[in-house]
Design brief:
CATH architecture of the largest domain: Beta Barrel
Shape: globular
CATH class of the largest domain: Mainly Beta
Radius of gyration: 27 Å
Number of strands: 23
Strand content: 35-45%
Largest sheet: 5 strands, mixed, barrel
CATH superfamily of the largest domain: Nucleic acid-binding proteins
Helix content: 10-25%
Structural class: alpha+beta
Number of helices: 8
Strand order of the largest sheet: 2-3-4-6-5
Length: 446
Amino acid sequence: MDKNEIAPHVKEIARVLEGKVEESKIEEELENYLNVYRVSLDTAKRSVVKGFGGDPNALNKSGGRRKVTDIKGGEASVDILAKVITVNPKEIPASDGKPARQIVYGIIADESGSIAYTVWDPQRFQMRPGDVVMLRNCYTHEYNGRVDLTLGNRATLEQMPKDSLQNIEMSAPVSSSAGGPAKVSELADGMNSVSITGRIISVERREVPTEDGTKVVFSGLFEDETGRVQYSAWHDFELKPKEIVRISRGYVKSWKGVPKFNFGEKASVTRLTLDDVPDLGSGKLKPRTILDIERIGGATDALVSGTIIDVKEGSGLIRRCPQCKRVVQKGACRIHGKVDGAPDLRVKAVLDDGESTLTIVMNRSVTESVLALTLDDCVRQAQEAMTTDVIKDIAEDKILAKPFMVRGNVLSDEYGLMMIVSEASPVEIDVKEEATKLLADLEGFQ
């Protein structure tokens, strides 16, 4: 092994020896065991640690360096040597009066493949594209078959020589940008030559004006086992609702962060059967994490589970301008001046799934369902109490600090993610099951 190949192992030994021995001396001893005594790398490392008075067993506490392709979801302590491919800052909107939170996410890679990562404390981990880093004590989780790496408060980072890893291309993985087969939950703005497989939910024919004259476009909803996406076909492929198809050579553009799948006459559509795509058989939408949606930028008809941690001002019984439907403040619309506002219901809240937060907005019908009260009921109670605050109080009592499953379109702007909720329901928690999971998680971090 040359100096570049043994550099990560020298760093690891130095860490085990708590910096009490110079790396140059560790390197000299390690090379001696490897090149003169011809012992295995593991034996050499343990001999060096023992020779300098350290505990050789400490080398195995983190499980040793891992390859990307060997990492699985649910691991509590992962060490990996990787090249940083992308670094993307992200701001999570404030809640409960707390300042907005800064995170970083992106892609790292080694010789075997690439993996998405998230950093919850960017001040501790300074990374730039092209850096080679040794990450220790990371943890992982799996969603829709994709494993993500997280650098939490136990993780550490060591900068390594840039030639410690060879033949790593400075580009994102194929599934993230360059095209090829993709799941709906992976679609992101700018993807080209993409292939998706699933079911056509709806088809609508419409005419749109273009520079070359009026064109016919066919649009609707498409789904696979990971979610739904809006599509636009600029060619008549004779699509029909409930058909199962594979659409190839499409591209993705986003509107307010929501990815939309587009394809034209150069695309191909292959008819399939349910036997070809058995995962579609259940017809149930799988929940997604907020962090997963943040990475994509938005989502169509997403299902998210979490706890309501804040009910915002402007929730409860409100009044809207009869002309533009904007919320009336102090008897006036900002566009139409003084108006006699029509009563309406809504809830604006913050949902936390344990990894990130999401602003949710419930319209009248969803709010009525959640509160188990009609608009007329709320108007009557507000009149009796002589204040509309009573409805916000009821909303807080019904949903605050309670787990909910919400479904809807997730938009993105400078203020972060916001879901326009189409369905919301409380989640019944199995206390025994949750306690068992918590104990298992705690044992994994011991």
